[in-house]
Structure formats: structure tokens, C-alpha cells
Amino acid sequence: MRALPIVFAVLTLCACANKKPARPLFIDSSLEALIPPDTVFIVGSNIDGIKDTPVYQRLLSQMDLPQLSQFTKQTGIDPRKDLQQVISVSNGRLGLLLARGKFNQGEVEKRLQSEGASRFDYKGHNLFGNDRGSVAFIDLSTAVAGPTPELRRLIDSRGQPGQGLPVVLRDQLKALPATDQIWAALTGGIADLNIGIPENSNLGNLLRMFQGLQTVRLGVDLRNGLDVQADATCQTERDAKRIHDAVKGIVGIGRLSTPDNQPDLLKLYDAIQVTQNKTQTDVTAHIPPELVDHFVDLWLKKK
After folding, report:
1. Phi/psi at 145 (nearest 5 deg)?
2. How far apart are CA 284 and CA 281, in angstroms?
3. Would you list the DSSP string of 106-152?
4. How is the chain split among helix, strand and coil, in percent rounded to 5?
5. How far lies 202's CA from each of 110, 190, 194, in Å?
6. Where do the structural domains in the chain lie, given as residue ranges?
7. What's the predicted TM-score (pTM) here?
8. One digit per residue, pLDDT tens: the chain, 303 residues?
9. Helices 237-256 and 3-13, interaxial angle, to 10°?
10. E strands in the chain
């Protein structure tokens, strides 16, 4: 059972959808314009789209998530009510969180200050935090959080040529359908990504199996249960086979360690399919609506 979260973490790392969309994935233009041109990894969530799905209405809207509650307490922003789209980007060393919504900026500013954040000005923008990390409000419905030097760099470069989502990542995301509420893409591999995992940890050892990755892409659709379609393009066929075998091995270990009296959990593992075609490894999973309750219980409630 412990292997299940790792399986879905692998799905997130090795992601590239094969679906041919009728229309492109929606990325808020105000947020896209803020994405630094050196971005190599992007993860996005269309929160408005998630709110319309049965899994949200039946389960997540009522679930008590301590980390989310703490975030709401500290900022005055409830992602389940106040945000429309959230995008996290990284250049491999530092990351930014971009958010678009209908939050009350004045109320949020007061809450941040009451929680100990200092207020300081940079080129006409109010920043709340300290020299290490802060939150900046670009306008009444757009906020950016991250390392303070990165926020200053973002403000300095606004409106300059070359800003926005890099072409290589945009091309990756074009293959995802507009119906995916959660999506991600990576270019340049994971060797130089600083994702905060200790090198000698079990997960660090697992990640070393994925050093041959070149580009990855993920699409998650919650409209009819949970659909994940993903793949990874590697440097060589040998790299692709290593990733294929690693993911299948993780799924197999998880299945073998599942008691026979938990048939729903066995079905979750059986829903994960892994295939290889030359330098590409595909990972797909369809968890039907009747199993989503069980999945959410395992993946969220035990965190």
C-alpha cells in the first residue's frame, strides 16, 4: 500500500499525453505573460474546471485538508473558492507560484501582515514577506509567490520581448486537451532539477532511474473518475526501457503487497498501464468513478 503514492508521483514525473485535442489547453493569458523565459518545468491546475467535476463536488469540497486550511488561515485565500487557475514554474533551481482569482487584495494584505509578513515596495508593487521569500500582487486578481529576488526579476522584465511560456513547453502542452484540469510539462530532463529530495533517500534513488528523461508531459481529467495519460521521451531506447521497467516494477510491488481482502486497491493498480515505443514510455490509468472514493481516501486523507 505504501507504494501507491510513489506510483502516482512517478506518473506526475513521467507525463506526456497522447490525446489529440479538438481545442487547446486553457492557460490564463495574464499568468502566461508572467512565466519566466528560462522555465523548464511547469505544473498547472484549472481550479474552475476541477470544481465542475463529480470527484470535487462529492469528495474534495467537503474534505478537511490541514495544509490547505493553514494556507487559508495565513493568507485569507481559500483555493476552493477564491482561485481560478494556479501555475507553478521552475527554472530548475528556483520556482514561482502564479495564481489568478477573485480574492480581496486588501483583506489578503492585512492577513499576511497579521501573520508577520513585512510590507515593502518594489517599483510600484507591494511585496509581503522578507528578503528570502514574498508574495507580490501584480493586479487585483493576480498574485505571484516565491523567492524575493525572483519576484524582483519578474517585475523588472515585465513587458520585455521574450517573456512568457517558452516555445518548447508550449509545444508540449499543445498536445493536451482542454478537458484536462491538471497538467504538467518538463524539458531538458531532471538531472539538474532542484526538487528538494535528498540524494541518498529512497525517492532520490528512485529518481536516478529517470536520469535519461528529455521531455515529459502530463494530463489529468477528473470528469469521469480519474484519467491520467502520460509519457516520457528519453535520450535512448535503453533509457526508455529502464523507465518502463521501473514503473512496471513499482506497480507490481504495490500489487503484490496488497492484501487479497482489498479488491478495490488491486483494481487501482490494475488500472495503470505502461508501454514502450522506442525512446518513448507511455503511462495511462483510468480509475472509474466507483473507485475514486477509495483513491482519494488513500492519496489525500493519509497525508
Report:
1. -125, 145
2. 10
3. HHHHHHHHHTTPEEEEETTEEEEE-SSEEEEEEETTEEEEEEHHHHH
4. 40, 30, 35
5. 42, 17, 16
6. 1-27+165-303, 65-161
7. 0.82
8. 444 444 444 444 444 334 444 567 889 999 999 999 999 999 999 988 888 888 787 766 656 666 567 667 767 787 778 889 999 999 988 899 999 998 888 888 888 888 888 999 999 888 999 999 999 988 888 999 999 999 999 999 988 888 889 999 999 998 888 899 999 999 987 766 666 655 666 666 666 667 778 899 999 999 998 899 998 999 899 999 989 998 999 899 988 988 888 888 888 889 999 999 999 999 999 988 888 777 666 655 554
9. 160
10. 41-46, 83-90, 95-101, 118-122, 125-129, 133-139, 142-147, 182-187, 213-221, 226-234, 272-277, 280-287
Report yes or no: 237 and 279 within 8 Å, Cβ to Cβ: yes
Strand, coil or helix: 83: strand
Do residues 214 and 61 make contact, with C-beta atoms less than 8 angstroms apart? Answer: no
Distance separating alpha carbons of residues 84 and 86, to the nearest angstrom:
7
Output the nine-digit C-alpha cell for 173: 502542452
How many angstroms separate the CA atoms of 182 and 173, rounded?
A: 11
Judge contact between 87 and 79, C-beta under 8 A. Answer: no
Q: 467537503: which residue's cell?
A: 62
Q: How is residue 262 written as a grid cell?
A: 482489498
Provide long-range contacts, Cβ within 8 A and 24+ apart, for 189-197.
189/213, 189/214, 189/235, 190/13, 192/92, 193/40, 193/41, 193/90, 193/92, 194/90, 194/92, 194/93, 194/94
